[in-house]
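Priority: low. Protein: HAD family hydrolase. Input follows.
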Amino acid sequence: MHLLSPASAIIFDLDGTLFKTSTLSEPAFRLIVDAIRSQKGIEMGYFSAEEVASFIGHTFNEVWEMAFARHLPGEKEYIHHTMQEAERKMLMAGAGALYAGIPELLQKTSEEGYRLYLASNCSEFYMQPVIEKMNIAHHFTATYPIGRYPYMSDKSELLSLIIAENPHETGFITVGDREMDITAAQENHLGSIGVLWGFGGEHELSS
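Result:
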């Protein structure tokens, strides 16, 4: 990856950019609905693949509002815990995969001298097991899951923190698959690369 900028570092998104999240999230969301039915006695329907895809890349608070708040008002912490358990269970069962070529991409960019950072609208309890299970954790200088910072509301704030905490970098390029990734980069005056294999697609990234 040869970048036309003085950037010394690349900030990668996780879901939909490196990690093919649907291979984990679709079965995990089925487990969540099963738990709600059995533990709360609420007859929720399963989410479609398209609905699950629409949740990916959003913060937990956003997913809560989009998917669960109307069914289980007041049960936000229960859903948070249930989601973490479902994702952990599916990951340990072998669900989840990287997109083709990602290990080689991370290796090549590291060899070319870029320091790699990981920034995502997910929790630390999700990010760390995923990157360890996928054997890519060693590529990253630092990781930044937004769930580590409860005062943050969006990815723009997360990128601002990365910039502030790493003043030795001569510049950053961001890589992501959703409009929110590109917008966050623009708000921090960073260059960005949008990938088309994730959940945003060309229409979203060009809007």
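Residues 22-92 form one domain. The mean pLDDT is 93.
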